[in-house]
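Newbie here. two chains, one complex. Structure please?
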Amino acid sequence: MNATRPLPNVGMPEDPDYEEKLAQFEARIARGEKIEPGDWMPYEYRRQLIRMISQHAHSEVVGMLPEGAWITRAPTLRRKLILIAKVQDEAGHGQYLYHAAESLGVDREELIDMLLAGKAKYSSVFNYPTLTWADIGMIGWLVDGAAIKNQTMLAHCSYGPYSRAMVRICAEETFHYKQGKEMITIYAQGTPEQQRMAQDALNRWWWPALMMFGPHDTDSPNTPVLMRWGIKTKSNDTLRQEFIDEIVPEFHAIGLEIPDPELRYDEETGHWISGPIDWDEFWRVVRGNGPMNRARMAARRQAHEEGRWVREAMVAYANRQMVGDAVGVGS
Amino acid sequence: MTDTQWPRYEVFKQDKPHKPHEAVGTVHAPDPEIALQNARDVYVRRPDCYSLWVAPESAVFKMTAYELEQDPAWHVEEIPPDAPPQTYLVFTRQHHRRSMVAASHVGQVQARTPREALRRAMEQEAWTARPVYLWWIVPQAAITASQEEDVPSMFAPAQEKTYRDQSHYGGIIFGKHLQKKRQQKQKQPQEKQERSA
């Protein structure tokens, strides 16, 4: 975090009452209580939450871009209505999350400025291009399906505002997942060309979707503290395995092939075991060198600049209303 | 002037008449009128909504049970003798379940300050029969509300957008049904051949 405004300087390990307060705090989490904005929390809890929630908010906002690109090319009016509604939802989800982050003492504007300056992280999956219409269905089913796995866990988060934002998002996101599943299911049984498109989309999105759960537990330094304080309740690898176990049989059922020659079913454990994930690619994309990183940021900055006149008009209107109120106009 | 960091407004949404207004989150806006519009776009993309309130976040007095416990002198304040009483709306949260709502409207009290309003609220047995984890005190004068005539334009359109609801996609064929269908498809050409032979 390079927040320009310093965070409240409370909950530091060097504070004289830190150990006592920490014990109370951890006991509250163990009892299943929610931590609310006014409550004492370790500085590190606040910092980790701001990091996670802001990355999550940015992901929702950037996530509008790969799908938004296809609104004008939707094949039917129904699909167009669905896609517009879905992209609107992502905009709303970004707002829920920025506001959850603000409850911890950062400003939305700081967070947005960091995103536009290219200093903030967001989910790498959105740095891949949407090449065909079938990608829209595959994003809904596979990418949103992976996101829902993570978000369902985060709905149990110990921090009240984040948990509430997640419950609201999950309720809405289920539609995103279902519309994608519907689309891909239809295409997988459709014309040879539709079947080919569905398979091609799965080939390109499978690995980026598995990477969405983050690095292996052994390479995820934040996980222990996040689990200790009830921010996460499951590790990256646990969630990824649950997701694979659920979705592989579904793709098989509609006749699509998972693009992993080493994928096998382990009778003993009842798990689908995937081949190795290409973490070099993951880190390459995280560090800004994925196929679409620069295009995504350029599109965000352009949208921000082109929306400036709307923001200025709203402020001008508000100012005029205030002057009007002061001199009694229109009252 | 800042670019997007306008004042924050708390948003209270009422799903149906006779249900309580519930705190659903915040929006930024340069004035209360735009705050209501933003609240509609951010929090009412789906049914149901009958009424929305917005109030500047800075006007909302919030106390958690933990804060009250940590500061036994929380209610100590000097109230100017000429401070006029006003109406404060009271919101509480009384559970730790998964939920998308921070606090729900339970009623109102007359008081001269938010702290006095909270003291009065805590005396109401009906509101404290179960433990309260979160208290919100909102001066009624700070609230801007949607009107009944706004319902058709602001909230009713969401009713028709059934494709936003996951139940709209209930009819997808999956798993075993689909496998059967595929097997039938593969069989059919053979049967035809047999018949023609």
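Moderator note: Chain A has one domain: 18-291. The domain at 18-291 of chain A is CATH 1.20.1260.10 (Ferritin). Thread marked as resolved.
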